[in-house]
Amino acid sequence: MVPQELIYAAGAVPVKLCSGSYTAFAIGDELVPRDACPLVKAVAGFQSMGVMPIYDECSLMVIPITCDCKKKMAGMLEEKCNVFTMQVPIAKEDDDIEQYIQELYQLIGKLENVTGNRVTYQSLREGMELVGYAQYELSRFLEYKKKMPYLIQGTHVMAMMNAFAYMEEDAWAEQVRRLNLELKMRVREKKKVTGRQLPRIMLTGSPIIFPNIKIPLLIEEMGGIVAADETCMGERGMYDPAVPVDDSFDGIVRALANRSIRPCTCPTFARNRQRIYRIRQMIEDFQIQGVVYHVLRGCLVYDFEYRELEEILGTMGIPIIRVESDYNEEDVEQIRIRIEAFIELIKMQHLPGTKNQ
Fold first, then answer.
1. b/e map of 237-254 (b: 16 or more CB within 10 Å)?
2. Is residue 59 a contact partner of residue 12, using CB atoms and an 8 Å limit?
3. Do the Cβ atoms of 266 and 232 come closer than 8 Å?
């Protein structure tokens, strides 16, 4: 929801402050209501602790208002740091996009004040090229990820995508380029991470944020492989490059607004049929055999959409399981049992010869 191109154009570096830390979550639990989502609790906890340099060094916190918890979190953080809130539209009509474009222009002004640098046409083009390089390398990586047999563990992919939140774009893209060379070599030499047939699982729903990656770890520990990730900490935020129709400053800003809103499958939008379409497309592209729907406790917007997706996947013959969790470790064994049973079900349906492997 916050185009990184604008931040680079202002001579700054974007960093995502989302966290999966249990320690920060536990401290934040004392600061915000019990039923608030763990992500908001963790951000509030880290801000309160004062032990994370990345929070102290931020010149500006930009918070897109995608839910009520984010709205109240913005008010809480304003007391301690420089905050800019972005009103995200709930629909994708032309009038809504126009409103969002004005939000981006206000953000540009705020970035210029904070950095002392002017955002120009040239710096905006350079920001687009920087992000475009990362998108290009990721698109190459996704082609390797679709291949059978398995070239890379799904948990490794999720760690790679979480690293994107904290690295500068060009450094991250360079590491993905090197990984692509490694995967190309694996294809040529017919190397794979396992010789077994494993159920191909998609993760969707609330974000999986490092270090809270217990669910993908359990999926692969119980004999599946995370073959696709349709969460906002996965590849979703980088699918669509911005393509200006009008090669001007305003044309680029409008292209960034359209890229951020129109293809976005975040459930913050009142009508979100695009998410169903995208999930069905990914099931086909990545040969998915089962879906794990992750719900962070208190994340109502994602929980609201579960039933419709369950019905749609039922017509496709794709099993789905809803897993609700937060950042503590107390539910690991319970989740392990449910995921193990789910994966055994998929093995019986699709891989009968591998049931006892």
1. bbbeebebeeeebeebbb
2. yes
3. yes
Higher-confidence residue of 9 and 28: namely 9
Beta-carbon contacts of residue 267 (< 8 Å; ≥ 6 apart): 275, 301, 302, 304, 305
Decide: 73 and 41 in contact? Cβ < 8 Å.
no
CA–CA gap between residue 3 and residue 163 (Å, rounded): 18
Per-chain mean pLDDT for the chain: 89
85 pairs with which residues across the strands?
63
pTM to 2 decimal places: 0.91
Find all residues with CB under 8 Å of 47, minimum gap 6, and list them. Answer: 55, 77, 80, 81
Q: Which residue has the tokens 């763990």?
A: 38
Tell me how long the chain is. 357
Q: Do 208 and 233 meet the contact criterion of CB atoms below 8 Å apart?
A: yes
Q: Given the structure tokens 């039922």, which residue do they identify?
A: 314
3-class DSSP state of 152:
coil
Q: Which residue has the tokens 């789905």?
A: 320
Give the H/E segment covering residue 72. Answer: helix 68-77
Q: Work out the average pLDDT over 123-131.
A: 95
| Residue 24 CB neighbours (<10 A) | 23
Tokens, residue 94 = 């032309």
Residue 246 is classified by DSSP as S
Over residues 294-353, the pLDDT tens digits come to 999 888 888 888 999 999 999 999 999 999 998 888 889 999 999 999 999 999 887 665
| pLDDT at res. 52 | 77
When computed from its CA atoms, the radius of gyration of the chain, rounded to whole angstroms, is 21
> Distance (Å, rounded) from C-alpha 342 to C-alpha 153?
19
- Assess contact for 4 and 131: CB atoms under 8 A: yes
Angle at 137 (CA atoms; ends 190, 244), nearest 5 degrees: 145
